[in-house]
Amino acid sequence: MAANNTITFYDLTMAHGATTSPFVWATKYALKHKGFDIDVVPGGFTGILERTGGKTERLPAIVDDGKWVLDSWGIVEYLDATYPDRPMLIPHESVAALTKALDAWWWPTAVGPWMRCFCADYRDLCFEHDKDYVTTSREKMLGMKLEDMQAGREERLPQISAAIEPLRMALREHQWLGGSSPNYADYRILGPILFLASVGKVPSLAEDDPLRDWIERCRDLFGGLGRHPGLINLYGLKVPEGGPEPYMRESWRGGIYKRNTGPASTRAETEHITKKD
Ligand SMILES: N[C@@H](CCC(=O)N[C@@H](CS)C(=O)NCC(=O)O)C(=O)O
């Protein structure tokens, strides 16, 4: 399979040429992780069905030596099942379970809220011929005008940034979500961040955000896959007067982040909770 080590990949981009969809980004990384060259079929939001010869209305989609595979998760399952001798994207079933749980937290916590903060920019940055479709379809999804949905984002962006602290905590202690090397968990979380970089006309993360190191290392992977010149700067978030800190300066240390190494490590807490008033 994969003649000349190449897989055909249906992309979904903005007019600046960079991929936008989180699903499509994660899939691009997945193909590179498996060591494939990618034959990119470019395009925007309209005409997907025609472009793919009636195979799909949604992207990503790949064609491997004539075999069509749809859906980002379906593609990953296909790649690992068909090419088990190449680096695994999901090296163990637990990675699938944990990545699905993480993704189910990530979307309502950050990805959806970010999309609502950038929905009008998203429309403005897409191809001219996509603008009508993107406006009407997204206004239907959101139930309001894109400009109205986007308004007030200055207040919301620091809150979204503060809410993604669990990623910072994990990535302070681990080089990648995949451990000592990246796997599909990294690409699945990275996909929406690169979506943000494709549409975010104002920065969403603080200049000194601790996540920056992991994001930039992900962008450097596979010859700088995440460094398309169309992508916009993510850092330099402005916090309005009295707004929340965009990340915790002092990491919260509770539960598994507060290691019990014997009584000396818990003495202060024990004294506090047993002290007679
Ligand atoms: N479950 C699908 C979801 C794919 C999806 O929703 N793709 C969107 C881009 S984010 C799409 O193709 N949209 C085309 C449109 O809006 O017409 C997957 O994981 O691949």
From TrEMBL:
<dbReference type="InterPro" id="IPR036249">
    <property type="entry name" value="Thioredoxin-like_sf"/>
</dbReference>
<feature type="domain" description="Glutathione S-transferase UstS-like C-terminal">
    <location>
        <begin position="97"/>
        <end position="199"/>
    </location>
</feature>
<dbReference type="InterPro" id="IPR053605">
    <property type="entry name" value="Lignin-Degrading_GST-like"/>
</dbReference>
<dbReference type="InterPro" id="IPR054416">
    <property type="entry name" value="GST_UstS-like_C"/>
</dbReference>
<dbReference type="Pfam" id="PF22041">
    <property type="entry name" value="GST_C_7"/>
</dbReference>
<feature type="domain" description="GST N-terminal">
    <location>
        <begin position="16"/>
        <end position="86"/>
    </location>
</feature>
<dbReference type="Pfam" id="PF13417">
    <property type="entry name" value="GST_N_3"/>
</dbReference>
<dbReference type="InterPro" id="IPR036282">
    <property type="entry name" value="Glutathione-S-Trfase_C_sf"/>
</dbReference>
<keyword id="KW-0808">Transferase</keyword>
<dbReference type="InterPro" id="IPR004045">
    <property type="entry name" value="Glutathione_S-Trfase_N"/>
</dbReference>
<dbReference type="GO" id="GO:0016740">
    <property type="term" value="F:transferase activity"/>
</dbReference>
<protein>
    <submittedName>
        <fullName>Glutathione S-transferase family protein</fullName>
    </submittedName>
</protein>
